[in-house]
């Protein structure tokens, strides 16, 4: 019976992780470190996966932002923080989020507010509603300016 090397096991583990969803280089490195693979093995595996185009932080960041906007709309600040946690370089994050236009962010925030107003806040006074909506959008990573703009638009439409 053929003995499988540590490098092969690490590569199999990395492919298993990548089969669930795309990952950043740092995510793969961290997960392999948790499994007690040596730094040398981790480096070789990630280098090989990059060469084969299974690991690409630029593509990962782009896909992550698109997916998050589509499935769980959020603002630039939250997306930025999530990508930092995934180990993506700040410059690359800036480039990726540069494609995310302010108008898109305002439209996303407006849609979130519309959905929220349909389900909740009907029995609350205007000040409480505004405060809660502000907090909701802030937790989703929208900027102060975006929130102010959206709340102003929503108020104008209500009048």
Low-confidence stretches: none
Number of domains: 3
- The succession of helices and strands, N to C, reads HHHHHHHHH
The multimeric state of the shown protein is single chain
Straight-line distance between termini: 77 Å
Biggest sheet features: none
User: What value does the average pLDDT take?
Assistant: 89
User: What general form does the structure show?
Assistant: elongated
* SSE class: mainly alpha
Indicate the CATH architecture of the largest domain: Orthogonal Bundle
Instruction: Give the helix tally.
Output: 9
Q: Tell me, what is the CATH class of the largest domain?
A: Mainly Alpha
**The CATH topology of the largest domain, please?**
Arc Repressor Mutant, subunit A
Number of strands: 0
What is the CA-based Rg, rounded?
Answer: 21 Å
Helix content: over 70%
How much of the sequence lies in strands comes to under 5%
How would you describe this structure in keywords?
single chain, 159 residues, mainly alpha, Arc Repressor Mutant, subunit A, 3 domains, elongated
Please summarize what this structure is.
The chain is an all-alpha fold and 159 residues long. The chain is 75% helix and 0% strand.
Task: Give an overview in words.
With 159 residues, the protein is an all-alpha fold. It has three domains: 6-51, Arc Repressor Mutant, subunit A; 57-98, Arc Repressor Mutant, subunit A (Orthogonal Bundle), CATH 1.10.10; 102-158, Arc Repressor Mutant, subunit A. The protein is built from nine helices and no strands. It has helices at 6-20, 25-34, 39-51, 57-71, 76-85, 90-98, 102-119, 126-139, 144-158. Helix 1 packs across helix 3 (39-51), helix 2 (25-34) runs antiparallel to helix 3 and helix 4 crosses helix 6. The protein is elongated. The mean pLDDT is 89.
């Amino acid at each position: 019976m053929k003995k499988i090397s540590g490098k092969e096991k690490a590569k199999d583990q990395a492919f298993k992780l990548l089969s669930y969803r795309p990952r950043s280089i740092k995510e793969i490195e961290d997960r392999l470190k948790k499994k007690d693979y040596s730094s040398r093995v981790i480096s070789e595996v990630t280098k090989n996966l990059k060469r084969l185009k299974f690991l690409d932080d630029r593509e990962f960041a782009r896909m992550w932002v698109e997916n998050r906007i589509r499935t769980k709309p959020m603002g630039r600040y939250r997306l930025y923080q999530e990508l930092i946690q995934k180990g993506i370089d700040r410059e690359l994050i800036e480039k990726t989020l540069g494609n995310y236009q302010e108008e898109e962010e305002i439209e996303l925030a407006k849609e979130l507010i519309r959905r929220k107003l349909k389900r909740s806040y009907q029995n609350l006074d205007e000040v409480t509603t505004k405060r809660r909506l502000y907090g909701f959008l802030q937790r989703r990573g929208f900027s102060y300016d975006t929130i102010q703009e959206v709340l102003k638009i929503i108020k104008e439409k209500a009048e």
